[in-house]
User: Fold this.
Amino acid sequence: MKKPGKPFKSKKKTPVVREQTQCRFCREKRSYIDYKDIDTLQKLLTNRGKIFSRKRSGNCAHCQRMAQTAIKQARFMSLLPFTA
Ligand SMILES: [Zn+2]
Assistant:
């Protein structure tokens, strides 16, 4: 006997995108992020100079905190812009 349920929906399931298990700094096993490493830090900034969120950058909480500190140090040393 057929159970009364929800009406059938022909909705295709989108393939699940696996999130990376480790962030880019953990993969490289970096113990700290250098504020002079502008090429790396630039990838974590928008073109207006804002820091990407953890979800966007894919960093873990620990590395995001280190990156945040490094970016702020780099800004103070005028290596990176506060705003663009
Ligand atoms: Zn990490």
Q: What stands out?
A: The radius of gyration is 20 Å.
